[in-house]
Design goal:
476 residues, Aldehyde Dehydrogenase, Chain A, domain 1, Aldehyde Dehydrogenase, Chain A, domain 2, six-stranded mixed sheet, 22 strands, 40% helix
């Protein structure tokens, strides 16, 4: 792909670029070349966006449910029609294989379709009271929302920030990642083309701290939704607390995988190895800490190494590529530092552990085994293509290790024992648990974590209700 869309701001329905605004370079992670210049929103731009968000909230909230649902359905249709172009831009700016980019874009459209349908399922309820009195519970949109999206899923993360609020009747100012601006802009443009008012959906970019502090300081914003690191999530939560704004925080994880000796090991390997190296491991729900019963540890370890070494790494536009580059230069540098630390502490490097090629951010699919608990990589989210495989001697020890960290986003387990499945469902501390499966995401199912992995939910009916407040009406 030689063409990359010119990025811009979307404020009040107007595309803004130039005008003396400062800019940031957008880089191709496969080559390191600059592919675009991204404008930063000025303080005046952000104030204008806030004014529009206030007026846009009133307009969109008062639009009938039927019309809002119809507009979002049309937006989903446009995203599907444009999925090829959106995927091209996504791969260029983020690096993942083109097939993954298109799948992500289509999933974004499916999520919007679900949200559109949910608009007509936002029921209140009437409580039982004696004749002559009445108590009704109603749900109303919370108000203008500020959304901040991460670079690892540039299309889906933006959809999660705008779909739920729009379905609830809120206006949204969204800031996609400055490193991956085009695909999120294209998602937003499809919704504007479908009929969402320009003041109800706006897109801004800039220095992240400056943008978040400016927006969150305004009383216009009533809810904050963020996908990203735990450290940034904590900072945004503190800013939001100053004005008691409602928050949804989808933060980091360190996904444990409990592999028991009563499961089909080859099936577990095929599923988990593919999930581990999806998007070069840059997935908040990526399976990372493999806790394997001793009886099957060697078979699982060796089988994982075999599969890792067969992963085809290359440019996301190449047809045979299974894993693209990491999305930015911070990824390989930070990952290599953690792998080196683990080796110094006694971990065994079984494959990978090095950068690939002489350009771009490619890093080899990596497997470490017998990683000590004091190694940084087993305590801090590596967010890259590395699997950590350790032997465990009992179910109790596996659950204890799975729960040891302050993270609790996604967890995985492989067992054919029905009683054990029930125990794991009750005892593993995670917002989502996949048993004998690799996926923890579905458009109609809530997505979110516990502990340091955040709070609040996206997707499903919960993703819309998270953008609403309840009101109780008492009549005598």
């Amino acid at each position: 792909m030689n063409d990359y869309p010119d990025p811009h701001l979307l404020v009040g329905g107007e595309k803004l670029n130039g005008g003396g605004r400062e800019t940031d370079d957008v880089l191709d992670p496969a080559t390191g070349e600059t592919i675009a210049s991204l404008p930063r929103a000025s303080a005046a731009d952000l104030d204008t966006a806030l004014d529009h968000a206030q007026s846009g909230f009133g307009e969109w909230r008062d639009t009938s449910a039927d019309k809002r649902a119809s507009i979002l359905m049309k937006g989903a249709s446009l995203i599907k029609e444009r999925a090829g172009d959106i995927a091209q831009a996504l791969t260029r700016e983020q690096g993942k294989p083109l097939a993954e980019a298109k799948g992500e874009t289509m999933y974004s459209a499916m999520l919007l379709e679900f949200y559109a349908g949910e608009i007509k399922r936002l029921y209140g309820r009437t409580l039982v009271r004696p004749e002559g009195s009445r108590v009704e519970v109603q749900y109303h949109p919370v108000g203008p929302v500020a959304g901040f999206a991460a670079w690892n899923f540039p299309s889906l993360n933006v959809m999660r920030k705008i779909g739920g609020p729009l379905a609830a009747g809120c206006s949204v100012i969204v800031k996609p990642s400055e490193e991956t601006p085009a695909s999120g802009l294209m998602i937003a443009q499809a919704l504007l083309d479908a009929g969402v008012p320009g003041s109800a959906l706006q897109v801004v970019f800039g220095v992240p701290n400056n943008v978040s502090e400016h927006l969150l300081a305004s009383p216009v914003i009533r809810k904050v939704t963020f996908t990203g690191s735990t450290a940034v999530g904590k900072q945004l939560s503190k800013l939001a607390a100053e004005d008691l704004k409602i928050t949804t925080m989808e933060l980091g994880g360190h996904g444990p995988v409990l592999v028991f000796n009563d499961t089909d090991i080859d099936r577990a390997l095929d599923s988990m190895a593919a999930a581990k190296y999806r998007n070069a491991g840059q997935v908040c729900v990526s399976p990372t800490r493999f806790l394997v019963q001793e009886e099957v540890f060697e078979k699982f370890r060796d089988g994982f190494v075999e599969r890792a070494e067969k992963v085809k790494v290359g440019n996301g536009f190449d047809d045979d590529t299974q894993m693209g580059p990491m999305a930015n230069s911070r990824g390989p540098d930070g990952l290599h530092k953690k792998i080196t630390d683990a080796q110094k502490r006694g971990a065994k490097l079984l494959t990978g552990g090095e950068r690939m090629g002489n350009q771009g951010n490619f890093y080899a699919p990596t497997v470490l085994s017998e990683v000590p608990v004091d190694a940084d990589i087993i305590n801090e989210e590596p967010f890259g293509p590395v699997a950590l495989i350790n032997p465990m001697d009992s179910e109790e020890a596996m659950i204890e290790e799975a729960n040891r960290l302050p993270y609790g986003l996604a967890a995985y387990a492989w067992t054919d024992d029905p009683a054990r499945r029930r125990r794991l469902a009750a005892q593993v501390e995670a917002g989502m648990l996949a048993i004998n499966a690799a996926s923890v995401s579905a458009v109609d199912a809530p997505f979110g974590g516990v502990k340091w992995s955040g709070h609040g939910l996206e997707d499903g009916a919960e993703g819309v209700k998270a953008c609403m407040v309840s009101k109780t009406i008492h009549e005598g």
